[in-house]
Amino acid sequence: MSQHPAGAADHGHGHHDEHENHGSLKAYVIGFILSIVLTVIPLLVVFQTNMSKNGIIITIVTMAVIQLLVQLLFFMHIREGEGPKYNVMTLILGLFIVVVIVASSVWIMSFNSVVQ
Amino acid sequence: MQHAIEHNHSKHAADSHDHGHHDQESMKVLGFWIFLVTDCLLFGTLFATYIVLKGHVDGGPTGKELFEIPGFVAETFILLTSSFTSGLAVLAMNKGKVNQLIGWLIVTAVLGASFVGLEINEFVNMVHEGATISTSAFLTAFFTLVGTHGLHVSVGLIWMIGLMVQLKMRGITSVTRRKITVISLYWHFLDVVWIFLFTIVYLMGVM
Fold first, then answer.
1. Distance of CA A48 to CAs B62, B66, B96, B201, B207, Å?
2. What residues of chain B lie within 8 A of the CB of A98, using their CB?
3. Which of A98, A107, A111, A113 should one mutate to test binding to chain B, selecting the residue with the greatest count of B CBs within 10 A?
4. What is the C-alpha separation between B30 and B102, in angstroms, rounded?
5. Is A101 inside any structural domain?
6. Which parts pass through the membrane (chain A) (predicted)?
7. Which residues does chain A have within 8 Å of residue B49's beta carbon, measured at their own beta carbons?
8. I need a labelling partner for A67 at 20 to 30 A (CA). Which of A30, A108, B194, B201 fits?
9. Rg (CA), chain A
């Protein structure tokens, strides 16, 4: 009798964990291949093409952002887990602050030298 | 009767304790996630500083003269692969295979160590060429940004070695499971930061 509920709880526990970590080998391999491709493309763009400087910058930054998403989805399993997505909310807030810090620092520092 | 009630009570307490324990572990993972987001802010400010000071070379060497292409490309692929192998470690953990888990952690740690080795080598070469942290504002920002990332990787290595010892001693429990989940998140995060270092510092530096 005392064994049974413990066993059942254990089973539920194991099941819950399985549910929590969907990560399959397939997802990791796809994520890895995509990451390699998204790393090789910027290398080719920088060293093998004659695009304009701005074109290159836009392309490689786009590739970096896509790779960030690939890592979040395939490696860090951001979509998974139950209940409210506090992790996604925190991440969005954090990324917003990062973008504001970087963009406004660059903007104000460049503008500053123009004014002087 | 008294005994039965006590028994029931203690069973109930154990159950709610188990449940509470589980909740606590997932709260700890969330807490770590919040730490990672604040770490993003740290790197964000360092990136902002670097981008602002990038052109301020003060007559010293520029990124184009200093960065060695094979070096940073190798570092990128090594870190990318180690991010993948730390994912494989989590897969092995989910299957309950402790030896396989430790094996993948060793592979991840070896790759991480070679990354740190290459980076130290790169820094030493730069210093020998006279490009030290005090040469120019550009180099101050560069060494601070890249060095902070390298320090994170080094701390992760020590942490990973500690976890391997703990896994060997205790096996896969709900506590070690949470710890492995957390360190793999940390490792993927470091890879993401490196992608931006690779793009903004190195690729734009050699353009």
1. 22, 20, 46, 19, 11
2. 40-41, 43-44, 47
3. A98
4. 24
5. yes
6. 27-49, 55-76, 88-109
7. 105
8. A108
9. 22
Q: Where are the alpha helices (DSSP H) in chain B?
A: 2-53, 63-66, 69-94, 98-128, 137-170, 174-196, 204-206
- Domain holding A71, by residue range, is 10-115
Contacts of residue B73 in chain A, CB cutoff 8 Å? 43
- Residue A3 placed within a domain: no
Classify A51 as helix, strand or coil.
coil
Q: Which of B41, B199, B201, B207 to mutate to test the interface with A (most CBs of A within 10 A)?
A: B199
Any CB–CB contact under 8 A between A70 and chain B?
no
Q: How many residues does this entry show for chain A?
A: 116
A53: Cβ contacts below 8 Å, ≥ 6 apart: B207
Q: Which residue of B has its CA nearest to A65?
A: B196
pLDDT tens track for B89-113: 999 999 999 999 999 999 999 999 9
Within a 10 A sphere around the Cβ of B100, how many other Cβ atoms?
15
* A83 located within any domain: yes
Residue A2 falls within a domain, yes or no? no
Looking at the structure of chain A, the number of domains it has is 1
Q: Give CA–CA dist B3/B12, Å, rounded.
A: 14
Q: Is A112 exposed, middle or buried (0-12, 13-18, 19+ CB in 10 A)?
A: exposed
Q: What is the pLDDT of residue A84?
A: 76
Q: What is the DSSP letter of B100?
A: H
Under 8 Å between Cβ of B169 and B31: no
Question: pTM value?
Answer: 0.84
Higher pLDDT, A34 or A80: A34
Whole-number pLDDT of residue A77: 84
Between chains, do A53 and B196 touch, taking CB under 8 Å as contact?
Answer: no
B4 touches chain A (CB under 8 A): no
What's the complex ipTM?
0.82
Mean pLDDT score, A34-45: 94
CB contact under 8 A, A56 and B207: yes
